[in-house]
Amino acid sequence: MSGKRKAEDISEEPETKQHKDDKKEENEEVSAKEEENGETGSPLPSSNNDNENGSQDGLASAGTEDKKDDKDVEEKKPDNCGTVLVCGSTNWDLTGRKNVPKGTKGGSGRNLWSPHRFTPLDGVPVRLVASGSSSVHSIIVTEDGAAMSFGRNEKGQLGTGDLKRRDIPYLIEAMKGLNVVGAACGKNHTLLLTDRGEVYACGDNKLGQCGVGNQNPSILTFTQISYKGPPIVKLGSGAEFSMILDCKGALHSFGLPEYGQLGHNTDGKYFVTCNKLGFHCETAPKRIVFYIEKAKDGHITPVEVVEIADFSCGSNHTVAVDSHKRVFSWGWGGLGRLGHAEQKDEMIPRLIKFFDTQSRGVKSVHCGSSFSLAINELGAVYLFGQTKRTGEANMYPKPIQDLTGWAVRSVGCSFTSIVMAADESVIAWGPSPTYGELGFGELHRSSTTPMEVKALEGIYVHQVTCGLGHTLFVARNQTEQERAKIDKLAEYTP
Q: DSSP state, 468?
């Protein structure tokens, strides 16, 4: 029985003042319990203040609370919105290639060596930016949940209905009227997540990475994936595979199974002819069922995983964290990117033993092309794999000493570069050659150790994401001071 109905019953019966006070206390206990169980109308802090201040009438506090909360939800805008900044390569056709492919416009677009304001989005509050370590395209989500795309479009990954590259963000027509809350970019495909837990995909689908139930070569407009299950809460994309997480903590994967990156205990290989290999691709989301622990002698023990809390996809591998803060990894094992102190590919999610020996569990993971990052509950950042193009690789997780004491908020992983938003600063590092994605400026283009990006000093960055050769930031612009600092940055107009 709700607090409101109880209060009505009380007002109908004539009772003594003492009895009324007892009932009022009971009502407050009920409403407090409901709040603990997450049954109140709104998660906003204002809903709790009424009870804390002690409303005189139980009916007033319970009856008007829901209405007040609904009003707050309508008026309250997302706090994490801001201005989009960009740095790195804007020549989408040439990024990651030696020559521009035949039939493309040619090499238009320059390298931005420091963060620039993106003029097509001037005055547009943005709450989310997304790209991927093998992507040369990006997704931008505005404050109202509208999705825009720009960059390379050779396989229709922008969802524009054609194959023309876009230098200016294009409002995705197929997603009009839907509130987009998440996005993930693969090499040539894109996934979008709505607030109803539905997933839409477009782009290259030769290997089933769009999850629409077939292997049609390309999907030019956003199409809902072939999935009937609990609502989805998070998306991830490798180069040619995709991963989705449902609200019950189950992971589902689809696309290319090479290296075991889908986690279904197979790499999907078969002989098409005597000297040609093919792959049995997953064309629709398939749940990952088994998680294992492997001893040094090769003995395998199943691990009971209640639910997955976070995950991240590299080009051909995935790392995930469960609700007990344990870390699992699978896929391509080269250069130690799985953190198992060996270079074997893993076909099933395998527990990373290293984090079991630590006093604190892992809260988030982030994957680049050939490396992985894990951040534990104390804020320590661990790296495994290789960010350099030559030299030794980290075969098991090692803490990055230079980041001790920084509270890392958002991480963007590129092919070999890493950009992080921490406290009031942005930290980046990556080996040469770069396209300017680190934002250090033209004189100091790369760094093998973490360094602060001086151009963004004093600018609070909500979120950062990296593509193959570019970086996007969402910078806070709530005060006059913050807006003045952002206005001092150079402009980039495509």
A: S
User: pLDDT tens digit string along 195-209?
Assistant: 999 999 999 999 999
**Which residues partner with 454 through β-bridges?**
none
pLDDT surpasses 80 at 9:
no
Is the Cβ–Cβ distance between 251 and 288 less than 8 Å? yes
The conformation of residue 457, written as its DSSP 8-state character, comes to: T
**pLDDT at site 59:** 35
For the stretch 315-357, pLDDT in tens is 999 999 999 999 999 999 999 999 999 999 999 999 999 998 8
| Domain boundaries defined on the chain | 3-72, 83-492
Q: Taking 60 as the threshold, does the pLDDT of residue 68 lie above it?
A: no
- Alpha-carbon distance of 476 to 358, in angstroms, equals 35
Q: Report DSSP state, residue 74.
A: H
DSSP SS3 for 448: strand
What is the per-residue pLDDT for 371? 97
Q: What is the pLDDT of residue 107?
A: 63
Please state, in angstroms and as integers, the Cα–Cα distance from residue 460 to each residue in 27, 210, 214, 314, 426, following that order: 43, 35, 44, 27, 8
pLDDT value of residue 262: 98
CA nearest to 471, candidates 99, 97, 88, 194: 88
Q: Which of 68-72, 249-253, 306-310, 369-373 has the lowest mean pLDDT?
A: 68-72
pTM of the model: 0.83
Helix%, strand%, coil% for the chain, nearest 5: 15, 35, 45
CATH of 83-492, one of 3.40.50.2300, 3.30.70.3270, 2.130.10.30, 3.40.50.720: 2.130.10.30
CA distance 328 to 294: 11
User: What's the mean pLDDT in 236-258?
Assistant: 97
Beta strands in 280-370 (DSSP E): 282-287, 292-294, 300-302, 308-313, 317-322, 327-331, 346-351, 362-367
Bond prior to 433 in cis (omega within 30° of 0): yes
Which of 184, 183, 320 minimizes the C-alpha distance to 241? 184
Cα distance between residue 114 and residue 254, in whole Å: 37
Tokens 């409403």 locate to: 31
Summarize the confidence of residues 4-20 as an average pLDDT.
42
Using DSSP's 3-state secondary structure scheme, residue 290 falls into coil
CA 412 from chain center: how many Å?
Answer: 9
Distances (CA, A) of 348 to 244, 264, 288: 16, 6, 8
Q: How far apart are CA 350 and CA 340, in angstroms?
A: 9
- 353: exposed, middle or buried (C-beta count within 10 Å: 0-12, 13-18, 19+)? middle
Q: Strands 111-118 and 491-492, how do they pair?
A: parallel
